[in-house]
Amino acid sequence: MNTKFKKHEKVRLLIDPDPEYIEYDPAYDEQKPPIKKGALGRINVILPNGQYHVEILDENNNTIAYVMIDEDFLESPGSFN
Questions:
Q1: CATH number for the segment(s) 10-75
Q2: For the chain, what are the domain ranges?
Q3: What is the pLDDT at residue 32?
Q4: Nearest Cα to 36, choosing from 17, 61, 64?
Q5: How far apart (Å, rounded) are the C-alpha atoms in residues 7 and 57?
Q6: Is the dihedral of CA 47, 51, 53, 59 positive or negative?
């Protein structure tokens, strides 16, 4: 399977993800913010169906949530912390 992104690669969401596929991290202590287009994260798992399980991060690189999304709706954001 040819994939555009590799595991742990940083990405940005190009669309608002389907709320059905957002799983908030129970360890995240802050209020659960909405996950929207432009959210930053990193590839957690490359799924057998070609989709990605993306770990969404806050500004301090803490995990907020996980989202399942197709590679067509992800981009490499360049460098960010």
A1: 2.30.30
A2: 10-75
A3: 87
A4: 17
A5: 15
A6: positive
